[in-house]
Write a structure and sequence with these properties.
By secondary structure, this protein is of the alpha/beta class. Helices cover 30% and strands 20% of the residues. Belongs to the glycosyl hydrolase 18 family. Chitinase class II subfamily.
Length: 292
């Protein structure tokens, strides 16, 4: 017996209404650094799965604080220079390695224009193309900075992005929550300085996939893509059910129900995985890479 073709409801609607469905090849981005059992940074890049790896997190900065990097069990805070060779291994394979600042826990925020300037100087000299005698990740020069600001304070992040962009070549990325506009990154994202925006379509029931229905996610996606001037937009997802409180999309549902609704957009860039540890456990990226 011939197999029946199975269409997602969203894809069927697009076909019935005569809207062209164009598949666009995308990349996978992943957050690394928050679980000592996820493997090394080089392991992540050697997997061949990712185009971007966000080293997570610099979660103490601003307000006169001494900036601090927290990479969970990978290294002791202040002594992560051993990561330098892994960063260079990734870059030699064409993988972009980006420092993520913020996160859901930590002590960070900007109190003034001068504070934003000082943090930009620190990031440039300690992780990017500047120079410092105490670079936390060693001599390797990272490819950019990711804004994962989740504490609801949006003050001065637009200025931080501006000051960073004036330093020299780098990639600026951001990870807003899917409700638009994002409470922490709204003003920053209106600067037009961000190359990639990986929207977190999880832990936000109003704009995430649920029970076979991708409409809330796709509607939010279209709002983001039409309202923010950025190079590419990514669908941010938990790599396993345990990775987030809600919003998990199975690999099969991603390819059949979610991607058909977003890949036709010229600003589609791919998917973002939270995080490498759960991606290893669930083999999520390896299951969907051919469809992303």
């Amino acid at each position: 017996m011939a197999a029946k073709l199975k269409f997602s409801p969203l894809l069927a609607l697009l076909l019935l209404t005569g809207i062209a469905v164009t598949s666009r090849a995308g990349n996978i981005a992943v957050y690394w650094g928050q679980n000592g059992d996820e493997g090394t940074l080089a392991d992540a890049c050697n997997s061949g799965l990712y185009a971007y790896v966000m080293v997570s997190f610099l979660n103490t900065f601003g307000n006169g604080q001494t900036p601090a990097l927290n990479l969970a069990g990978h290294c002791n805070p202040g002594d992560c220079t051993g990561q330098s060779s892994d960063i260079q291994t990734c870059q030699s394979q064409g993988v972009k390695v980006i420092l993520s600042i913020g996160g859901s826990a930590g002590s960070y925020g900007l109190s003034s224009t001068q504070d934003a300037q000082d943090v930009a100087d620190y990031l440039w000299n300690n992780f990017l193309g500047g120079s410092s005698s105490s670079r936390p990740l060693g001599d390797a020069v990272l490819d950019g900075v990711d804004f994962d600001i989740e504490n609801g304070n949006s003050a001065q992040y637009d200025e931080l992005a501006m000051f960073l962009s004036q330093k020299g070549p780098m990639i600026l990325t951001a990870a807003p929550q899917c409700p638009y506009p994002d409470a922490s990154l709204g003003p920053a994202l209106q600067t037009g300085l961000f190359a990639n925006v990986w929207v977190q379509f999880y832990n936000n029931p109003s704009c995430q996939y649920a029970n076979g229905d991708a409409s809330n996610l796709v509607n939010a996606w279209n709002t983001w893509a039409s309202s923010v001037n950025a190079g590419s937009f990514y669908v941010g997802l938990p790599a396993a059910e345990a990775a987030a409180g809600s919003g998990y999309v199975s690999p099969g549902d991603l390819t059949s129900a979610v991607l058909p609704g977003v890949q036709g957009n010229a600003k589609y860039g791919g998917i973002m995985m939270w995080n490498r540890y759960y991606d290893v456990q669930n083999s999520y990226s390896s299951q969907v890479k051919g469809s992303v």
